[in-house]
Amino acid sequence: MVTSPAVDAGAGAPARSGRAQVPPPGLPGLDPRFSRIVTVPGRGTDAAASRSWHLLDSQPALDELGLTPVGTILAVHGNPTWSYLWRSVVSGSVEAARTGAPVWRVIAVDQLEMGYSERTGIRRPLAQRVQDLGALTDALELDGDVVTLGHDWGGVVSLGWAVDHPEHLAGVMMLNTAIHHPEGVPIPAPLRLAGARGVLAASTVRTTAFLDTTLSLASPALDPAVRDAYRAPYASADRRDGIGGFVADIPVDARHESFAELERIAAGVAALTVPALMLWGPRDPIFGDRYLDDLVTRLPHADVHRFEGAGHMIAEERPVADAVLAWLGERVDARAGTDAAASAAAPDAPAPASASASDAPTPFAPIFRALEARADDDATAVIDMTRSSAGARAAADADPLRVSWRQLNTRVRQIAAGLSAMGVQRGDRVSLLVPPGPTLSAIVYACLRIGAVVVVADAGLGVKGLTRAVRGAWPDVIIGELPGLTAARVLGWPGLRISASRLPRLTAAALGVATCLADVAALGAHSDLPDEPGADDPAAILFTSGSTGPAKGVAYTHGQLAALRDVLAAHFGVTADTGLVTGFAPFALLGPALGTRSATPDMDVSAPRTLTAASVAAAVRASDARMVFLSPAAVLNVVATAGSLTDADREALARVDAFLSTGAPVGAPLLTSIGALMPNATAHTPYGMTECLLVTDVTLDEITAATDAADSGVLVGAPIGANRVRISALDADGRATGIPSEDPGVLGEVLISAAHLKDHYDRLWLTDRAAARDVPEDGARWHRTGDIGHLDAAGRLWIEGRLPHVIVTEDGPLAPVGPEQQIERVDGVRRAAVVGVGPHRLRQAVSVVETVPAASRPGLADPALTEAVRAATSTPLAAVLAVPALPTDIRHNSKIDRTRLSEWAERVLAGERPVAP
């Protein structure tokens, strides 16, 4: 082997055919010290020759620092990029080593025919490229632990090397790649087009079309200088032969010469036990979530993170280097090699300090146990207030659909056995696009019974949000009504499609529907059920509302769902006779789990504001319920429509014992208003989130008693049962860096611990990692909520906003909720938001108010209102703006989008024409 440093290898020489060269100087972000040329004895087709490679190698920089690597990162680019793709990993690893992090040598290669490596003019199918890489690493005499890193077809080549070198392999990392393509499914359209006869040479070699298209996939668009750096090695047609060769080598079917090698690599990858990391850009039109799902199936222990909004050029779009180095530090013990790899963390595992749900003190009973216990009971289990032919639910004589416990249990058993007979297995994902009601309840409990993972994404996410959620979870099965199935077909959602109702044959065929629920149940009537799932088996993925960023899939185990059921039943005293009316989708399914009848009032569950007072009264009357559970936005409309209540409606509401509203902080005025409609009910506003649906609880009486307290924010009460809350104090930059504590009066991020806390975020390893950052090391599972607040002397929690909404002023961090509450006491102000404008650490507070009556147009508030608002709060305000309506999330219609408002206020105060935020 012969190597040459950059200074002796023709630095700056024009990129032409022939031997390897180093890149020209001045390419953005590329340190020329890392470039070197390596001469390697060939193998396979190249057995009689030596080939020259260009690569980036951090070893010389590590030598200058006197540092010895713990292992090597072998980074392989795809088509049509080159080692420039990995420049941030190379430089970042050196800088991390300089600051005391584990020392990793990085070798980022230019594959032969690509980048600045040799142009040999020889066709290189996949098997040859894997041999080429092996020849290089042998020539480099790598003898320690190696972690591979690959993107695009470099992922395939790097995994081929990994399969062939188990003695060195300590881990595998990959960005948007594929090692298997499903039979009968066309390859992605861009590759079909580029590889078409008569098009291949023109699009990949004779012109820069393929190169240009690939670079255009970056979002946001690449800096022109960076784009030019990627194009630099491919300036002429004779330099682009490798690009065309890579496209021609895509094994579209078993007849292709590289098909067998790809199958060999795929089988080998499935046998790997080393730690694995997958970083993915879901907007990639080539290597999308279909291929991620295949890789996860083969490497179920892998850590996965989908960067929402990122695409094919993910290394340019997201901080991949940071993620790679963080993962190596936490997951790979390079000194121990494959012995440590065999004990790699479980898929998407939370922090190492987490405890299993099965460690909960109460014995595990699956969430469907109460339903089975009432299998012979003909009493009503579920009431559907939306199925009546009578039309408007306000009609007193309307006849709702009633389903008995016996009927529900039979249906659950039949659907469960039918799905199992169809091949749906434990761990398979089933996406549900069915509105709350008896059908959804039956499907959910059927899936849970056989151990299938229920995927629930709220229709309130909208088409785009729902598409992101479904594709992100990549379900094996979709069960839906006609609207959901239509969306699945049009938008290309994955999964075997089952219709909740029987569709006309032509409609079913057009939508790709395989069967209907009735036929599934008929099949199950004569089939056996599989064994029950255990406490630690995955049970559900529930998507967040998307009100604080892209909706996240929150994964629960059976043990955690059972713990939620138990804490709800114990804290609120739910019995078989309680009865539950739920106008809040996440809780609409808990009735059967609690063994009590439940009713969903007439409303559009994706739009809480559609619920009326009369509909709630009708549901209470029909179910004889003693408990009502509504979202804050639903409560607003219930109070607003109370004038339509009849004497019979008010009589029914007077029988309610407990009222609950959660999903967003609920203030005393709203609780008082709803309390007037249910005069004998104790009004509760529990605090929770999709990640942990019940954390603390507070009653209206407790809120009223605390009216004169000096505390800022919304009182959400003390932890329920064995739940715990701690606060991580904010520093001068508004970051939650304090050691979590229970000290009163400390403003900071809220940390929670509970038996029913979620297991992890689905395919969001970095998000999981951030949520478990610097949590107490006491063996319990903890979660950073992103909410900010403080504990008072009695141990009660006060919520003061979200961490991203903290306004860092010259005087320190300012939480928004306290001043918002003060402003909302002003006559004519319906709701208020306080946001920041200006530079960090010098931001100024601005109030944006929604008025009654509504402002005719957005802009500066009138002088009288401005004066009243400024007088109402102790927080100095740079301006007061008024809008017809504040932007809120869809699910709750109550979580104000302060980030959006802040950006809007900046533009308005900068002189832009005010439009609706």
UniProtKB/TrEMBL annotation:
Keyword Ligase belongs to the record: yes
Keyword Ligase: yes
UniProt GO MF annotations: hydrolase activity
Pfam families given in the database record: Abhydrolase_1 (PF00561), AMP-binding (PF00501)
Residue segments, region Disordered: 1-32
InterPro entries: AB_hydrolase_1, AB_hydrolase_fold, AMP-binding_CS, AMP-dep_synth/lig_dom, ANL_N_sf
Keywords: Hydrolase, Ligase
Residue ranges of every copy of the AMP-dependent synthetase/ligase domain listed in the record: 390-757
Residues of the AB hydrolase-1 domain: 72-319
Annotated Low complexity bias: 9-20
Gene3D superfamilies registered for this protein in UniProt: alpha/beta hydrolase, N-terminal domain of ligase-like
Entry coiled-coil feature ranges: none
PANTHER family linked to this entry: ACYL-COA SYNTHETASE (PTHR43201), MEDIUM-CHAIN ACYL-COA LIGASE ACSF2, MITOCHONDRIAL (PTHR43201:SF5)
Family: Belongs to the ATP-dependent AMP-binding enzyme family.
Protein name: Alpha/beta fold hydrolase
Organism for this UniProt entry: Microbacterium aurantiacum
